[in-house]
Amino acid sequence: MSKIGRNDPCPCGSGKKYKSCCLTGATTSDFLYRRFRHVHSELLPQLTDFAFETVGPEIVAEAWKDFDDQQSLGNFDPESTMYVLFMPWFLFSWILEMTPHGSDEFCATTIAELFLINEQGRLNADEELLLRSSIRSPYTLAEVIGIKPGQGMTLLDLLRRTKYEVAERTASETLKRGEIIYCATSDFAGLKTNVGTGPYALRPTAKRDVLELRKWMNDEIGADNIEAEHLHEFEYDIRGLYLHILRGMLRPPTLTNTDGDPLVQHKIYFDIESSDQTFQALKGLAKGRSENELLRDATTSEGLVVKAEISWLGGTREARKRLGGPVLLGLLKIDENHLVVEVNSKQRASRIRRLVEKRLGNKARYRTTLIESIESQVEKMWQSSADDPFGVSGWSDTRTGGAAGLNSVDDLQPEMRDAMKRIARQHWAAWFDLPVPALNDMTPREAAKTEEGRELLESLLLLYEGHQSRDSDNLMAPDISYLRRELGMDQQRK
Which of 83, 189, 85 is nearest to 132 (CA)? Predict the structure, then answer.
């Protein structure tokens, strides 16, 4: 990241020069941040050693079971990606019940509190300040609503509904607006920074589940405002939701087509007597497309079709309504004496074979079916995004597969590109009036009329923007500006 000059525009977007805006504040906060990180890096190993010496290394496994009370993470593993979240929680927040010397009564304490008492008099002022500000800092779920890369972020605590700035250099380089983090924040001499942060951010659309948790907490406490004490009281519920959503994000998705059938690529091969007769018999499968449209990209000789492609269009009533038009069920390729049909499920393979044999009779002879593995596609999609960016609105079919197929379009035929673009336009035109799961099954137009609905809409649009920035060639990508204008959201951005 290049250094900002004194006379450069301030990165905060104020329009002022850096020297007249954030430079002074950045210098002060930078000093405090470096001071905090130095104390933290010196103190954390001491705390860990103290924990092992005082209560024994076996206590870590016990704390791990409390940390993951649903046992979804398996046994404790210091190589786990969750270690970076677990250790601060273990040292500063995990409650031990102990019997002090000379007493018969149990007391509840933390590793850091025991360390503070034990090392009293040997700690300097900064070390004691860091310990006292970090001990029992409550964990919450916070939305990233502003970012200054390399400096910090503005967070909105979705449970307490409070907004605050945190100094966070590394995380601010990778997080995006709208993402949700699980974190505990402390105040070190006026500098807010996160004591512990989950290694993965949740997608913006996870806000729906967080707000549902907040409503439940409000009902449980019988009050509208959630305070720090309530975050402690519902600690396991808050972390449980984070881990639950995370498991869904990191688990390879089960891909299905719009019929709900498991996604398995099939190529069905036929020998045919006549490419022209085959075209005439099967052209009706392209419902909604005229013969002239199909012939436009076909190869003909002496008025007869020699080579052509036919999009098999149809789908259930619900799928057609959701997509605003016919569903692309498969692709038929005619080439002289050969016919190859590409579909994305066993069920569609059986159906299209029956249709071909019924329409062509003895003029087509079935040869074989090639079943292609999609494991590599699933793995690639999982690693890159672990989610179809448009799955929240109902899209799940592409050329011959699920959303993974949208990540590479270079090999698509012009006819298929045109078909996908047309379906995309139909889909996004209908999207405004279709129930969306991420909006609590409200339509976007309905959601735009309520405060909570607009909040969920904003998260959904931020999700779309995030995926669009990573996959600019996606043929199903919407025009985000258009969606915002239509919903009256263009002036509502934070």
Answer: 189
